[in-house]
Amino acid sequence: MGAGLAGAGMGSATAATPTAAATPVQAPSPQTNVPDLDAPGPAKTVEYPPDYQTRSHPDEARIEAPQYTRITGVDPHCPSPMICPVDITPDGKSATVKLDGTNWTWTRPWAVHVAANSDAPLAGGAFTGTLTFEGVTLPLRVNITAGGAQAIFGGYVANASGGGGVKVNYVEPGSKAEMSGILPNDVITTLNGQPTPTVSAFHEILAGKRAGQTVPVVINRNGATMALQLTLDGA
After folding, report:
1. 187 and which of 113, 165, 217, 224 could share a cystine (Cβ 3.0–4.6 Å)?
2. Max CA distance (Å), the chain
């Protein structure tokens, strides 16, 4: 989160005690920019402007990433990471910044670095997360650009005899489907958590997805049920 924190007592055990006449702190301001993200692509920065006011107490900021994105970094521009540590979850869906000082002044923008994931819709769109600080929740907005290659299955499927799935008749050598562990004669029963009773249903699930996205797939192989992660090939 990119705001500079400065002033007396930031992380100091001898910080001055705030007086009762301290000026009330105003709510944080909305972000100053809305970045356009490629999916997948490099992270870009969302900034929240400083208000130059002094806080007399420790606090915490929590950030939730917009759908189809992940938080890759948060920059609070503190004098030391020990003063305001940043904790980002392994999946990047949320982050917490602890502001462990007293009498600190918000003097520089807070920067949240966000990247789009490969599972973003092919059509792109506008997506919103949140930043919560001092009891106020602000939107964290990004745009995900349209484009990329339409996802396909790296082989051929047909309706399985007796229904209940689609049978893999052929897997393209060197395809992502092959590298994902799919074999000829596997029967795919669900794709991305949705049933695939027919070839038509199978391709409807693929519609609008980007090449390179990895989705869960459940197969029946010689009577045994298996769960795999299928990376989608491109058209």
Report:
1. 165
2. 79
CB 66 within 8 A of CB 142: yes
Of the chain, the end-to-end C-alpha distance in Å amounts to 39
pLDDT at 171 over 90: yes
- Alpha-carbon separation of residue 15 from 7, 18, 85, 108 (angstroms): 10, 9, 19, 21
pLDDT digits (tens, 9 = 90+) for 42-58: 999 999 999 888 888 88
CA angle, corner 24, sides to 47 and 111, nearest 5? 10
Best CA proximity match to 68, nearest among 176, 150, 143:
143
User: In this predicted model, what pLDDT tens digit does every residue of 187-202 receive, in sequence order?
Assistant: 999 999 999 999 999 9
Rounded Cα gap, residues 108 and 81, in angstroms: 16
